[in-house]
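Example 3.2
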Amino acid sequence: MLNFLKKEANEFKAFAMRGNVIDMAVGIIIGAAFGKIVDSMVNDVIMPPLGWLMGKVDFSNLYLTLPVNGDFTKYPSLEAAKAAGAVTINYGVFINTLISFVLVAFAVFLLIKGINKLQATAKKDAADAEQATPTVKSCPKCFSEIDIRATKCPHCTSDIA
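Structure, written as tokens:
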């Protein structure tokens, strides 16, 4: 049993230390932090002026209360409705989440677009470097065009230094 656990631990260690797993972990951690930044930007920077422009509406406080046993009680806020145990549809929170998603998706789009542009530039540079490297040379005796790796001219059979 102990040997089995050691073997499993070694396999897990090899798996966890592979580059892809570490890269993925870093991406998840940075993504979570980025998500918090976007949430703050939406809730604290974008939504207040948008709500103000729309007549001082607080999107996070927009909700519908569903009647329970014919009770159509109005609550002053979402928190009050939740505290009273009312069934609510929180469409304002959904709007905030939707805006957060659009911002994250746009940021990822810009990131991928930038990466694709860098990769295209790197491929173009590699192709240009490959074209710039000469593949032929001229024979000093007969002036024929020969492969750059040749040590003997195939046309005049003279030795090439």
